Amino acid sequence: MSLAPALQAFAPDPACPPAIVAPTPAPARRGTLAFELAMRHAGLRAVELRYELLGDAALPAVLVAGGISAGRHVAASDAFPSPGWWEAQVGEGRALDPARHCLVAIDWLGADGRLDAPIDPADQADAIAALLDALGIARLAGFVGCSYGAMVGLQFAARHPARLARLVAISGSHRAHPYASAWRALQRRAVALGALQCDERDGLSLARQLAILSYRTPEEFDGRFGPARVVGGVVRAEAEDYLDHCAAKYVAATPPTAFLRLSESIDLQALDPRDVPVPVTVVAVAEDRLVPVQDAYALVERLPRPRLHVLRSRYGHDAFLKEHVAIAGVLREALRQEPRQ
């Protein structure tokens, strides 16, 4: 077992500039796969899986998956020029380069809000296997998963090990921590309370704001926001405008049912790390309050073929979106190393 911690100091904002969106000239295409899936808690269901490929299909394939709000569009391309959710890492010359790999990404099962049933992370893994069958991809050169994507990646590695050379699991583990599950349960109650007031979207807005607080850290807010002020006779925290902005953006793009079912899915994660035979690079963040670093240590201690990086970041769980340089270094190292026999 190899434990290689890579410690990073708290980074100031200038160290995490926004990625420059330059559409890659690599070929890109989208599609939708319709099939039947035997779901772990909901039985046989007719489902659809939307996907996007970036890069030549003849290149080694790497699947890229983010959190429950991430989707199939990871980076801008000539075919689909709008910014993707991981521009900092995907593109020409970047850690995930479509000139070197065919990058495969999906919209999660349930992301459109039409699948109103319990969705296990194992269901997502089996859906990915079905997609690979349809695309004629026998084996992935890598699976890069962040947050929920890391959970699904672990499930894929356990359930379909012959189809995967290596896994990079960033800020995700083999279980949902009970403290984090309680946090998400309160978010789902906020949506339910909104529904009782015939305003499910308002409940979803509050749930998203609570989620943002769990993704980030007190250290970031302390350095970013000032004290509360009296505005129109009401005391208002300076961070409220930021939280309102984040919530409005999320609510505009996410059906409440999608949030509820994917939030539940995180809490259904349960996996024995000893069942994951492929090489796994685990990336943990010391300040992550949703996936405590102790869970990463427990995961690595039980994985047969692990490598561990521990980062320091005031962005907590969202470090994979903000710590561009540190995450890029881990990805480059993990994807070029050959699996040990």
CATH-assigned homologous superfamily of the largest domain: Alpha/Beta hydrolase fold, catalytic domain
Percent of residues in β-strands: 15-25%
Q: Helical proportion? A: 25-40%
Radius of gyration: 19 Å
Protein structure class: alpha/beta
Distance between the ends:
13 Å
Order of helices and strands: EEEEEHEHEHHHEEHHEHEHH
Q: Give the integer mean of the pLDDT values.
A: 92
* Strands, count: 11
Question: Which CATH top level class of the largest domain fits?
Answer: Alpha Beta
Low-pLDDT runs of 5+ residues are 1-19, 337-341
Largest sheet: 9 strands, mixed
In short:
By secondary structure, the protein is an alpha/beta fold. Helix content is 36%, strand content 18%. The model is unreliable at 1-19 and 337-341 (pLDDT under 50).
Structure explained in plain terms:
The chain has helices at 121-135, 148-159, 178-196, 200-215, 218-224, 240-253, 256-267, 293-302, 319-322, 324-336; strands spanning 2-3, 28-39, 43-54, 61-65, 102-106, 142-146, 167-170, 229-231, 234-236, 280-285, 306-311. By secondary structure, the chain is an alpha/beta fold. The chain has two domains: 2-176 and 269-336, Alpha/Beta hydrolase fold, catalytic domain (Rossmann fold); 178-266, Rna Polymerase Sigma Factor, Chain: A. The chain has a nine-stranded mixed sheet with strand order 1-11-10-7-6-4-5-3-2, sandwiched between helices. Strands 8-9 form a two-stranded antiparallel sheet. Helix 8 (293-302) links the parallel strand 10 and strand 11 (306-311). Helix 3 runs antiparallel to helix 4 (200-215), helix 3 runs antiparallel to helix 7 and helix 4 crosses helix 6 (240-253). The two termini are 13 Å apart.
